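ok here's Metallo-beta-lactamase domain-containing protein:
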Amino acid sequence: MYLTWLDNNSWLIEIAGKSILLDPWLVGSLTFGNVDWFFKGSLSQQRPIPENIDLILLSQGLPDHAHPPTLEQLDRKIPVVASPSAAKVVQGLGYSFVTVLTHGEAFTLNHQVEIKAVPGSVVGPNAVENGYLLKELESGFTLYYEPHGTHSSQLKQAAPVDVIITPIVDLTLPLVGPIIKGTNGALEVAKWLQPQVMLPTAAGKNVIFEGLIPKFLQAVGSVAEFRSLLAKNNLTTQVIEALPGDRIQLQLHKRTVAI
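and the structure:
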């Protein structure tokens, strides 16, 4: 399994010989409702669109996960698996093959990779977006992704999981609290799933944020502090802090099954 962090929430997952592009923001700026004064993100280094993509996977319909300018650059014939809100975005852009997954539903890519939707982030008063469990069917290796640090207790049924991609640092707003639930959520899900490897996501590296909201955002925690928390809880999970563009080969081992 190979993972390439493309910055922010964007990943290229190479699993079972297939390339899955996850929540891509690779070109243009990021705004919500085209209100630049409120929030605007700009890439200091735009990433080339990966070639030979077998599937686009979208966890949310918000622009930082289903980014219209990026999706407009991609081939509309690439199959898409998406949450209901993200599916509306790609369908509106003319994508031909869109599979909508609600919580508990699964999709199998070429009989090699199973993708199961699980409850993820709460977006709006009643909307719960998707997290995903990706399982390489031949090896049994499993990856879990949730970009806001909201982890459903239903995940306990999936344990153990080999790889987790989720925030490990909190992003908070005064009077509001955490909008990205990193440290405590990541520790809790690590206890549940006993991963071999964890990789942080959501914290943009080569991104310039402007507007009202970024002025008040505060990051709480660090990779070093999280590693220390894992050790204090007797967890041997390796934390890999990826750099944008680096292709990382994960050295995973088969787990011994007790009889």
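+1. The mean pLDDT is 89.
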